[in-house]
Amino acid sequence: MIKQVLKKIFPIVFLKKAFYYYNTVKIKSIDLILFPEFKVDKLKFLTYRVSFPFRENKVDTNIITNSAVRNYMQQWNSWTQDEFIFVYKSKITIEPKIGWGIIGRNKLLYYSLGISRTLFLPKPDAFTWFLGKKKSKEVDKIVSLRDTGEENYFHFFNDVLAKIYFLELQGIPIQEYQLLIAEKTWNKSFFQFWLAHIGRERKFTWLVQKSDEYIISQESIFCKPITHHQQVLHNLFQPYFEISVENKQYSEKIYLKRNPKRLRFVENGEEIENLVKQHGFEVVDTDELVVAEQIALFRGVKKVIGVHGAGLTNLLFCAKCEELIELFPPPDAGYLPFHYILVASHKHIRYNAVIGNPTRSTFSGSFLVNEKELESMIINRY
Length: 382
Description:
By secondary structure, this protein is α/β, with parallel strands linked by helices. It is built from 14 helices and 16 strands. The chain has helices at 2-9, 12-27, 30-34, 53-56, 67-74, 126-130, 153-169, 183-186, 189-197, 230-237, 269-278, 291-299, 339-346, 371-381, and strands at 47-51, 81-88, 92-94, 101-103, 107-109, 135-144, 178-182, 205-209, 213-224, 253-256, 265-266, 282-284, 303-307, 323-328, 350-355, 366-367.
């Protein structure tokens, strides 16, 4: 109720920034007392390693012509991630909102989530956990597919479904476990599409966690492959190429725009759309397409210009894409997101990017794209 009222009063971008600062303070203070960490000896992991995702994906940042983008992306060469499988063979409770694993009275298993130490990730709801009336279900064995960003199109593939394929690569008999997934993810069209065309043949046992339901498990598997794990992504997406979809005639060159209602949109969008149309690009908003239409669109695409966002996840459906230009808003955290340069590297797509300029509307979520810079990049690359 309070969130709905605040959304009517303040811009969403402002609320997100305010929550980030509030959560940062809360994590470093009261949360340390309410939910201390359950320490895990690395020797108790079934598998554990630290990796360099950019190096493993052989990302060549030198091909980026925009020097600012190149400098931002080169920073990721020293970035590390842990990859692990952890089997916990005692009672643990999975709370419903985020998917945290809680051991005993209040200790958090940080390895219950793939990226658990970020400053934007809330801890469990303390009032409900300590004082509220909780609805719970007890089960024997689960594989937790809960994770940060599980409702997002990109993170669904990279962080949720990827767990299944990662565990299979490691020889884990996951058919012996119930696969735990959030109800909000279960209801997403992209999950139901995967389930209908690919997942049903796998004969998994699903445990759908309701938004107010605590799951108590006696044995639980938690895991995380490195982001953009090449073999995992190959195994995950290969079955999609065998799915028959309507062969609607799309252009081989597309520009992916974003609706202003979704934030992170191009304020001078009309001018940019007119520009790309002059160079033979078809303007597309993937929010207006169902999953099958997005697959059909990207199967035949060769050139893509797109605003950074989940729509670019569809590059993983490409069979012959050659070029990608990604449009970024001005970075406000000292970095540019790495997701789609990694996808481009995985798919052998030549990558470049443009950093937009700020607008006068500080909290609108919009940014401006320099038309001359983009056109020069199109002419020289396309």
